[in-house]
Design a protein that fits this description.
The complex is a heterodimer of chains A (about 375) and B (about 290).
Chain A (H helix, E strand, L loop, with lengths): L1 H21 L4 E7 L6 H20 L8 E7 L4 H13 L5 E3 L4 H14 L3 E3 L14 E3 L4 H14 L4 E7 L2 H14 L5 E8 L7 H8 L5 E5 L4 H12 L5 E3 L6 H7 L7 E5 L14 H15 L5 H20 L3 H9 L4 E2 L4 E2 L14 E7 L2 E4 L2
Helix pairs in contact in A: 2-11, 3-4, 5-6, 7-8, 8-9, 11-12
Chain B lengths: L1 H34 L6 H17 L5 H24 L7 H23 L15 E3 L2 E3 L1 H23 L1 H11 L1 H6 L4 H27 L6 H14 L6 H21 L4 H15 L14
Antiparallel strand pairs in B: 1-2
Classes of the chains: A alpha/beta (about 375), B mainly alpha (about 290).
Chain lengths: ~375, ~290
């Protein structure tokens, strides 16, 4: 009898051990972000957010009982490094999907790798080239620059302004914006009178602005990321530039208002809704996601959650949804992603299809204006 | 008339930017003149001036004047530590080795500042408001006047120091001939240290007065340093008027180029001028060719 009990106990113990050993291994997800280097303002909040969301999913029991394992590498905003790390994720770490990279350059560089390895990629970069033309394994969460341009042009048309000046930064972000501004102008009946650029590290743009002041332009659109646009806002105030100034979504954070100070008053820009989440009407579909993200980010990092972090939030949540529906294989995830409809995330309401792997419309942006050092919605 | 207005604005903006370059150029020249090395960490002194002022102002809550003094003092101490730890121990190093060391130091300083204070750009409030002042149809900010004023003071100070004090004369003696200076009893090592002190202080001061205009971050030193270096080369690495004129010309040409030709070529113009001068007049725009005395 004693023997029987001990055997039973031993086998029970063994059974426990074996189930522990047999517990499903975690689902490996790769992440590439430019945490250091010139694009670190994108990569850092993205990495923070991705890790935060994955930790929370795991704490809540994982996806269908399986934990997620996030393997993150830093590309430094360097396309060569991004390629090496993407290869590492695919070959050594054998991830089922990759989120990131942060920049358009890095994303374009690794597309051939994920296409060949047949691993789905959800890029967090904005360049429209990433998903146009559609690549089978590539999706993105960041809003296309073209949508931001459309939002500004729509407003200009409403205000009956047809002659504009553009001032864009001479890096990838500015070049893409400039391309879109020029391409869409004719469609909205807008004429670009002056087309100037400035260097990302320039500290004085009065020369360009004096030229614009001398032209017949009725509005100025400036495309860049901090600190350039803040310098432009200050220089415009110094020169007494009287035409309305529009900025890009590249400066849609409180940092811009802080840097530009009083000079930011009255500047309008298209922004993801995360900036004005508390101002949105109660029935806005994104409101719940937005408020959850902002509160979470504030709790974890004591900083304002911005739309860059939002791109990573969207990528992880889309992936979670796809794994729930399509299983843990790369092919299953890809198909489930492509069939995702009406997912209300941070960047907008995503509806992917076989013809559209960007998934957003221009309603992903909302036009905001700086008033009394804060954002207000432009009606 | 409109064009004239624009050109006045380009020139005034250019002069304002140019005096920043001139100030940084001067601090390059001071070290070069007593040691024969080009200190590529000079831009980092400029950055430290701005970043440390903002830190003292926002985190330590010092009043503006105290914050500026603290920033200049701390940067000067960093200059001294740098000279003691990285330059002095290498007694017989060639200038080339020392230059490479300064590049290393600049990367180190930049990295440390990034880790300590993050990568965000910060702005310093303007010293006396931001209401533009109108001059002959062009506008400039009160901060520009501060920059002009400080530049003039620093030039006068340098002139008095180098021509009318024993230490200044001794430093110049070192630059002419180190061995001879040593033989007549000048402590060359001390003069080198002095030059780092002055140059770090001038660099930091430049960083402080431009921070309200250009804003500052851990990586602003690189471009400002290069532009200042350009100015110093144009002036023939002299610590006087040549460098100042070099800076002003550079700033004005940049601004005119950006306004009248194309803004895309702004930096190209600066570096084109640098190359041109190095090819045609390596001794600087305003210096006569040196003759070897036997």
């Amino acid at each position: 009898m004693k023997k029987l009990v001990s055997t039973a106990f031993a086998s029970f113990a063994l059974f426990c051990l074996s189930t522990a050993a047999l517990a499903a291994p975690p689902i490996k997800i790769g992440a590439l972000f430019a945490v250091t280097g010139p694009a670190s303002f994108l990569g850092e909040p993205e990495r923070n957010t991705a890790q935060m969301v994955v930790d929370e999913i795991n704490k809540a029991g994982g996806v269908k009982g399986r934990k997620l394992e996030l393997i993150t590498y830093d590309t430094g905003g360097d396309a060569t490094k991004a390629v090496q790390l993407a290869n590492k994720l695919v070959k050594n770490d054998q991830v089922v999907a990759i989120i990131g990279p942060s920049t358009t350059g890095d994303s374009m560089a690794i597309i051939p790798i994920v296409e060949k390895a047949q691993v789905p990629l959800i890029s967090c970069a904005a360049g429209s080239k990433i998903t146009e033309p559609v690549k089978k394994w590539v999706f993105k969460t960041a809003q296309n620059d073209g949508l931001a341009v459309a939002k500004i042009y729509e407003q200009l048309k409403k205000e009956k302004k047809t002659k504009i000046a553009i001032l864009t930064v001479s890096d990838g972000f500015g070049a893409s914006g400039r391309e879109q501004l020029k391409a869409q102008a004719a469609h909205y009946g807008i004429q670009i009178l002056s087309d100037d650029t400035y260097g990302p590290k320039d500290t004085d743009m009065t020369a360009q602005l004096a030229k614009i002041r001398g032209s017949q332009a009725q509005a100025l659109i400036c495309w860049g990321t901090n600190p350039g646009p803040a310098v432009i806002a200050r220089n415009a105030k110094q020169l007494g530039l009287s035409i309305p100034v529009y900025m890009s979504h590249g400066v849609s954070s409180k940092k811009f208002i802080e840097l530009a100070g009083d000079a930011a008053e009255g500047i309008k820009l298209p922004s993801g809704k995360v900036l004005v989440a508390d101002l949105l009407p109660k029935n806005d579909k994104q409101r719940a996601s937005l408020l959850a993200f902002i509160k979470d980010y504030q709790n974890h990092f004591r900083a304002e959650g911005d739309h860059f972090g939002g791109h990573a939030w969207d990528a992880v949540m889309l992936l979670k949804g796809a794994i729930e529906k399509g299983g843990d294989t790369s092919a299953g995830i890809r198909n489930a992603l492509e069939n995702t409809r009406n997912f209300a995330g941070i960047g907008g309401i995503f509806s992917y299809s076989a013809k559209d792997h960007a998934g957003l419309t221009k309603d992903a942006f909302t036009l905001v204006e700086v008033r009394k050092k804060d954002w207000v919605l432009v009606k | 008339m409109e064009l004239l207005n624009q050109v006045t604005q380009f020139v005034i903006s250019g002069l304002a930017t140019g005096s920043i370059y001139a100030l940084i150029g001067l601090s390059f020249a001071i070290i070069f003149n007593s040691t024969g090395i080009i200190n590529f960490a000079q831009g980092e002194f400029v950055m430290l001036g701005g970043v440390l002022t903002i830190f003292s102002l926002n985190v330590l809550h010092l009043p503006l004047i105290a914050a500026i003094l603290a920033a200049v003092a701390v940067t000067t101490v960093i200059g001294i530590v740098f000279e003691r730890l990285a330059i002095r121990p290498l007694k017989n190093a060639t200038p080339l080795m020392l230059i490479i060391i300064t590049i290393g130091a600049s990367i180190l300083i930049r990295g440390l500042v990034m880790l300590l204070w993050g990568k965000d750009t910060q702005a310093l409030p303007a010293f006396s408001g931001t209401d533009p002042i109108s001059v002959a149809g062009a506008t400039l900010l009160p901060q520009h006047l501060w920059i002009f004023g400080v530049t003039v003071l620093v030039i006068i100070g340098c002139r008095l120091f180098f021509n009318h004090t024993i230490s200044g004369k001794a430093m110049r003696a070192c630059s002419f001939n180190r061995r001879a200076a040593n033989l007549v009893g000048i402590s060359v090592g001390r003069m080198v240290l002095f030059s780092f002190v002055i140059s770090a202080a001038v660099g930091a001061l430049a960083g402080v007065i431009i921070a309200p205009l250009t804003m500052t971050a851990y990586d602003v030193g690189v471009m400002l340093g290069l532009k200042g270096f350009c100015a110093a080369i144009m002036g023939g690495m002299g610590s006087g008027l040549g460098t100042v004129l070099g800076g002003l010309i550079l700033g004005t040409l940049e601004s005119l180029g950006a306004g009248l030709i194309s803004s895309g070529y702004k930096d190209a113009i600066a570096f084109f001028i640098l190359l041109l001068i190095l090819f045609i007049r390596p001794q600087g725009l305003f210096k006569k060719g040196e003759t070897e005395r036997v």
